[in-house]
TrEMBL record:
Name of this protein: histidine kinase
Keyword Nucleotide-binding: yes
Stretches assigned to the Histidine kinase domain: 373-592
Biased composition (Gly residues): 504-517
Catalytic activity: ATP + protein L-histidine = ADP + protein N-phospho-L-histidine
Enzyme class at the top of the EC tree: transferase
Keywords: ATP-binding, Kinase, Membrane, Nucleotide-binding, Phosphoprotein, Transferase, Transmembrane, Transmembrane helix
InterPro entries in the record: HATPase_C_sf, HATPase_dom, His_kinase_dom, Sig_transdc_His_kin_sub2_dim/P
Membrane-spanning parts: 33-54, 310-329
Renumbered residue ranges of the record's region Disordered: 1-20, 497-520
Transmembrane among keywords: yes
Length: 599
């Protein structure tokens, strides 16, 4: 059908009918979409900032708590060794006085000298005290004869005097509360044991006073960040024995948080609140606890400094997002995709960087702490062994056996000194051997002078770093050579003795002779790096060696040790007469440590 023709009288410009109008498609505004995306981006950054901040804050607090727990383990081990050594001395005093009348004990200068000599080996002890059954002081290494003092009203004396059976732990040591000594007039606390008659009746008390300032000094040297408060407290009543830092004569009591933590976990644990972090540990079988308390304020201050760069990075990311949003208002959808990809990469890179840095720092800190703890424990154990050998050497009646035990103790102490340096230095792969050699020689010089004689050690020691695995054998070599010179270089004139059949530890110097030509017993010790070699030289001005002496075939323990240790180090040993005297030279292959090569 043909449509009807339009009427000629219709105006030419009239609008088309409504059904025939086509509306154009309206797309959403790109600016609005980008605005919403920008808002979502800012919200995402805020959430990431909050989550990362909360998590990093928790990691900072957890890290501080772990360091406090590690420090508590070290302190508990140290305190255990200290109390063990003190208890050995108390037992020794009890054995020496067993069965002897109190009047005889009070008058015995020989007993006083013997106990005072043992007490001098333990610097953390002030004195040994022996009280009779009435509490009167009969003997103390602080003075001879003992001043008047009555301990019958002291808690520690009452504890032993009132003990009546096995339930009261008659044979167990006791650690008393912190007191002000009536004789010394200073703060101290006692480690004591009950003295009993053969029939079990109370005879008195043997005790030692432990110096709190020695423990405070050790706690002060402990490398723990954020300046912690270190406490030694008794179990049960939680009486504070030592607090560092604390200048008051009567230390402040434990906080409520600390008391609750110890009561909840008697053997050890940790707790924290909004103001403090507390780590504690019981000292082996001893009724005392070591506590390390950290305020959270400095920990959070360190966390603020640590997270500040990341906050700046977040701010930079926010600014970048704003700039991209402004730019995106003028660009197409492709620009928006680029923006989103960039934001995603920034967030991922930031999170990855945080994880990497945290894991690396934690691993390094744990490794360093473990190495120091291992060397510290080895040093403490070797010192205990050395002290036990020395005590045993003084207890035996055979002079030759006593000399052997004392010599073995010196060798063990030489190894302990190496490990003492290892937990002090920053790099455990190298050790400053010049510091060790100087300290060793001064200790041997003091020991030799205490035994009589005009001894003088002349040191010419240059700085030298040696690898850790060389330090122990080289230290033993130095100890053997110096002790050899002290024992044999200036022997008085005597009947000639064969170099192969000397005394129990002769090193070939057992020939007749006298003192040095200058009238003094001089021993020279030198340490000199020379290119790719390190020279250790020990010489004297004494009697020298017999012409037919062959040190390689000597049967003495000292020369066999020197020969074996030299071979172990790949070193060359040269022995020569210097008229007067003899000189031993150890030439050790040595590569100097380059500056900056030690991490």
């Amino acid at each position: 059908m043909v449509p009807p023709a339009k009427s000629s009288d219709e105006p030419a410009g009239s609008p088309a009918p409504a059904a025939d109008i086509v509306h154009p498609f309206r797309k959403p505004r790109l600016e609005a979409a980008i605005g919403w995306l920008a808002a979502c981006g800012f919200l995402f950054l805020a959430m990431v900032t909050v989550v990362v901040g909360v998590q990093s804050r928790e990691r900072a607090l957890n890290g501080a708590q772990e360091r406090a727990q590690a420090a508590v383990r070290v302190l508990a081990e140290h305190a255990a060794r200290l109390f063990d050594a003190a208890d050995l001395l108390v037992e020794y005093a009890a054995q020496e006085t067993a069965g002897r009348p109190w009047d005889e004990i009070a008058r015995s200068r020989a007993l006083w000298d013997k106990l005072n000599g043992q007490r001098a080996r333990l610097p953390f002890l002030d004195a040994i005290w022996l009280n009779d059954g009435a509490g009167l002081l009969r003997l103390t290494t602080l003075a001879f004869p003992a001043p008047f003092s009555d301990a019958s009203d002291r808690d520690v004396f009452l504890f032993h005097s009132r003990a009546t059976g096995a339930g009261d732990a008659l044979d167990q040591p006791h650690i008393g509360p912190r007191i002000i000594g009536r004789v010394t007039n200073k703060a101290t606390f006692l480690l004591s044991r009950r003295l009993s008659e053969p029939d079990g009746r109370f005879r008195g008390m043997a005790s030692v006073t432990i110096d709190p300032s020695y423990l405070s000094g050790f706690y002060k040297e402990l490398d723990v960040p954020h300046r912690p408060v270190t406490i030694l407290a008794r179990s049960g009543d939680l009486d504070v024995l030592v607090r560092e830092p604390d200048t008051a004569a009567d230390p402040a009591p434990l906080s409520v948080l600390t008391r609750r933590a110890i009561q909840a976990q008697p053997e050890g644990g940790a707790a924290r609140d909004d103001t403090a972090i507390v780590a504690h540990r019981r000292v082996d079988s001893w009724p005392v606890h070591v506590v390390v308390r950290l305020d959270t304020a400095p920990v959070l201050a360190s966390w603020h400094r640590l997270i500040a760069p990341y906050a700046g990075l977040g701010a930079a990311a926010a600014l970048a997002l704003a700039a991209l949003s402004v730019f995106g208002f003028r660009q197409a959808g492709a620009a928006r995709q680029v923006q989103r990809e960039l934001e995603r990469r920034v967030v991922e890179r930031t999170a990855s960087l945080q994880r990497t840095i945290g894991e690396r720092d934690a691993a390094l800190a744990q490794k360093d702490l473990l190495m120091r703890e291992v060397n510290h424990r080895i040093k403490n154990s070797l010192q205990v062994v050395s002290s036990l050998l020395a005590l045993q050497g003084q207890a035996v009646d055979d002079p030759r056996l006593s000399d052997h035990l004392l010599e073995a103790g010196r060798r063990v102490q030489a190894i302990a000194d190496i490990h003492r340096l290892l937990y002090r230095v920053d790099d455990v792969h190298f050790i400053p051997f010049h510091d060790y050699l100087t300290e060793l020689c001064r200790e041997l010089e003091r020991s030799a002078r205490s035994e009589g004689g005009d001894w003088r050690l002349e040191l010419a020691v240059e700085p030298a770093e040696v690898p850790t695995d060389h330090a122990v054998p080289l230290g033993l070599l130095a100890n053997e050579l110096v002790m050899n010179a002290i024992k044999h270089a200036y022997r008085p004139l005597a009947t000639p003795v064969s170099a192969e059949a000397g005394d129990g530890d002769g090193n070939g110097n057992d020939r007749p002779g006298g003192s040095g030509r200058d009238g003094a017993n001089v021993i020279s010790v030198g340490l000199r790096p020379d290119g790719d070699a390190l020279h250790l030289i020990v010489g004297d001005r004494g009697v020298g060696l017999p012409p037919d002496f062959d040190w390689r075939r000597s049967r003495s323990l000292g020369m066999r040790l020197i020969h074996t240790l030299s071979k172990q180090l790949g070193a060359t040993l040269t022995v020569e007469n210097t008229s007067p005297g003899v000189r031993f030279t150890i030439r050790l292959p040595h590569r100097p440590v380059q500056s900056g090569s030690i991490s």
